Amino acid sequence: MALQPAALAEADATAESSGGPNHLWLRLLRSPLTLSGLVIVLIFVVLAVIAPWVSPYDPSAVSDSTLVGPSASHWLGTTQNGQDILSQMLYGARASMFVGIGAAVLTTLLSVLVGVTAGYIGGIGDELLSLLANVFLVLPSLPLTIILAAYLPHSGSLGIILVITVTGWAWGARVLRAQTLSLRKRDFVEAARATGERTWRIILKDILPNQVAVIAASFLGTVTGAILTQASLAFLGLADVTQWSWGTILYWAQTGSALLTGAWWWFVPAGLAIAVLGTALSLVNFGIDEFINPRLRQAGIGTKKAQRGQVSAKRVRRVKRRGPAVRRPAAAPFTQDSTDVVLDVRNLRVEYVGEGGRTPAVSDVSFTLRRGEVLGIAGESGSGKSTLAYAITRLHKPPAEISQGEIHYTKPDGSTVDVLAMDDTELREFRWEELSIVFQSAMHALNPVLRIGAQIEDVIVAHRPGMNAPERAARVIELLGIVGIPADRANSYPHELSGGMRQRAMIAVGLALDPEIIVMDEPTTALDVVIQRQIIEKIMELKDRLGFSVVFITHDLSLLIELSDTIAVMYGGKVVEMAAADDFYRRPQHPYSRGLLASFPTLGGPKRELTGIAGSPPDLRRLPSGCAFRPRCPHAFDACAAQVPQLYRIGAPGGGSSLAACLLHTDASPDQAADPAADPASDPKTDTAAAAGAGDPHSETTPNELATGETR
After folding, report:
1. 360 to each of 178, 404, 498, how far by Cα in Å?
2. CA distance 257 to 272
3. CA 600, CA 126: separation in Å to the nearest integer?
4. Residue 420 needs a FRET pair 20 to 30 A away by CA distance; which of 327, 442, 486, 704 works?
5. Domain span at residue 635?
6. Which of 553, 583, 613 is the last residue of a domain?
7. Which pLDDT score, from 0 to 100, does residue 22 have?
8. Is residue 600 part of a domain?
9. What's the average model confidence in pLDDT over 90-108?
10. In the predicted model, is pLDDT for residue 686 greater than 70?
11. How far, in Å, CA of 404 to CA of 351, rounded?
12. For residues 74 and 54, what is the distance between their CA atoms, to the nearest angstrom?
């Protein structure tokens, strides 16, 4: 698609109004405590670097001025050998800071490597790495540190760094593993996998940015802990006491009985330096989360930014008037007579494999999705809707396993591909190019530490590496305009958007590469009815304009009836009814469907009591014999306990037909999509005879009345 100059200009204007990353540092520096901590740490670092040039004396040089208090010639006094304590402090800062920062870098890198890897890859790798971390966690760190340091008395600072790294990495790795285990199940990570992002890119762009606060806190804490450990080892004489550090100064002060002789200037400066540096690092740590977490940042930095945003907004409005947005020609409207199948699912079976056996979450599900059609899938929680969505997109992960079935996708040129036979490379090209998914709960599906525009752009980067930055920015602005989000919102974080706007942003992510199919897994969850109406109207508008097909999954039948062309109802992992939306609403054929419809109030007509459905959905590990809905069905009879009903095709009075998996319809013809031979007990003649001779004496609705949608 050619990018218009107006879109490029609008992208530039939007980028200008973002304020830039420099304002994040300004936000960090606005905290007095954090600023104080940064200044103190910076002073220590600078003094450590320039110590050889600013030190007034050689720290080891002796003189006749022994145990002299602070004076003009010796600002911090001297030792019993006449050595200048200020020079020792400056040189000691080099060793102490080197040990602290060096140990923190190595410890943090090892913790991140082990913790994130173990948490993300899972399986046997997670078990082995977790076992290694647990071994080091149960070992007493202080005795282990002392023992290792005793064997490395002349290794200097490098030896101390290695000792601290070996004894200190496990705790951080444990914390990061727990955080990664939580993040890897978040929808925005699933979305990144679905868009074809490489594993290393997901870790770098989605996992690690959400753990920066934890990593930074661990790093700063390790710096403080390493300095204290080094000082403790030196004070005990377990380090090289000929190398000057703050701990070495304390060691010689203790050896020279400074406390007993009243030479407070010998030990106070070193102890005070350690305490002040630790306090400064703690102050910096307090401001880290506020700096990193977008939720804690104040909106706007000052008046100048607001004025610049107003100017940029005016520029954006001027750009919008320069030319119309790029729009595709309207697609032909979908009709029930359409035969242009874009997705064909046959006898799909998805099982969860565990120690207790195999649990079928989706059993023998078959349907066709036609080009431009909205297929709605309804059912209670646990009926298999989301599992079906993940199977279609091949996003299911162990212990989920597709054990049976076929999924065929028909390209616009008429060629057909087998989705289940695709390897990782083919799947990466298929997802988001041909089929995308909009996850439920947009607040969790969007990465909280990335701006909306950046998350949309990630999809483009993964699949359109040839696009340059201005073209990608223009495409982001175009997509936001398509879903009705102002261009300047590209620089907003998810928490800065309303629920409806976040959901529209997720739809923009799904539309980024113009897919043929969009799977929407409960996209209106937790939204109020007004916002639901806006989302549904936007979906319908986009479908009619862009011509894609939709698999729409929801609990809300009233919403589904209004939106969908065809509705499939799932129960116990199976499709129990499939019909055109109007036929489903006016003539539901399955008792479960009638119960679902009876659970919603009507806005017009006579008042009626909401009956709902008694009981609870079945446990998929222990499905009842025969019909899974039998224990809750008010029309069950003896045959329902012995036979698993197949889908029967039922003709509608005004034309068309519905499919229902109920023995009340055994006088209808079995659907060709089902395999009658798969269940020997499902003989239509036998079923018809059983249905004719059996009934529910407690029900006021006869089988024939239920089949025709009439009641007494």
Report:
1. 29, 11, 38
2. 18
3. 47
4. 442
5. 624-708
6. 583
7. 47
8. no
9. 93
10. no
11. 9
12. 14
Q: Which of 583, 607, 634 is the last residue of a domain?
A: 583
* 409 close to 395: Cβ distance less than 8 angstroms: no
∠ CA(692), CA(694), CA(698), 5° rounding? 130
CA atoms of 266 and 248, how far apart (whole Å): 11
Place of tokens 């239920």: 706
Q: Can you tell me the distance from the alpha carbon of 427 to that of 429, in angstroms, rounded to the nearest whole number? A: 5
Q: How many Å is the Cα radius of gyration of the chain?
A: 34
Is residue 328 classed exposed, middle or buried when 0-12, 13-18 and 19+ CB atoms within 10 A define those classes? Answer: exposed
Q: Is residue 187 part of a domain?
A: yes
Say whether both 412 and 491 belong to one domain: yes
pLDDT bracket for residue 83 (50, 70, 90):
very high
Tokens of 551: 């698999």
What is the C-alpha to C-alpha distance for residues 46 and 637, in angstroms, rounded to an integer? Answer: 86
Distance CA 500, CA 502 (A): 5
Q: How far apart (Å, rounded) are the C-alpha atoms in residues 337 and 332? A: 13
What sections of 63-122 are H helices per DSSP? Answer: 85-121
- What lies within 8 Å, CB to CB, of 624 at 6+ separation is 618, 630, 631, 641
Shared-domain flag, residues 432 and 538: yes
Q: Does residue 590 lie within any of the structural domains?
A: no
Residue 160 makes CB contacts below 8 A (sequence gap 6+) with 99, 103, 149, 152, 226, 229, 230, 233, 239
Residues 579, 630, single domain; the answer is no
Per mean pLDDT, which range of 436-445, 506-515, 552-561 is the poorest?
436-445
CA gap 467, 458 in Å, rounded: 12
How many domains does the chain divide into?
Answer: 3
pLDDT at 483: 87
Which residue reads 């695709």 in tokens? 422
CB atoms within 10 A of CB 396: 20
- Tokens for 491, please give them: 């620089």
Q: Look at the pTM and tell me if it is higher than 0.70.
A: no
Question: Under DSSP, is residue 253 helix (H, G, I), strand (E, B) or coil?
Answer: helix
Q: How far is residue 178's CA from residue 161's CA, in Å, rounded to a whole number?
A: 26
More confident residue, 565 or 600: 565
Quickly state the pLDDT bin for 526 (edges 50, 70, 90): low
Question: At 202, which CATH number?
Answer: 1.10.3720.10
How high is the mean pLDDT of the chain?
80
CA–CA separation, 100 vs 94, rounded Å? 10
- Rounded-to-integer distance, Cα 166 and Cα 148, Å: 10
Q: Are 84 and 68 in contact (CB under 8 A)?
A: no
**Judgement on whether residues 285 and 357 belong to the same structural domain of the protein:** no
The pair of structure tokens assigned to 285 is 């740590």
Structure tokens at 166: 């070996």
Q: How far apart are the first and last CA of the chain?
A: 59
Which position has the token pair 């929680």? Answer: 381
- Residue 44 CB coordination number (10 Å): 19
How far apart CA 561 and CA 566 sit, in angstroms, is 8
Q: Around Cβ 677, how many Cβ atoms within 10 Å?
A: 7
Q: How far is CA 522 from CA 378, 527, 559, 560, 712, in A?
A: 10, 11, 11, 10, 36
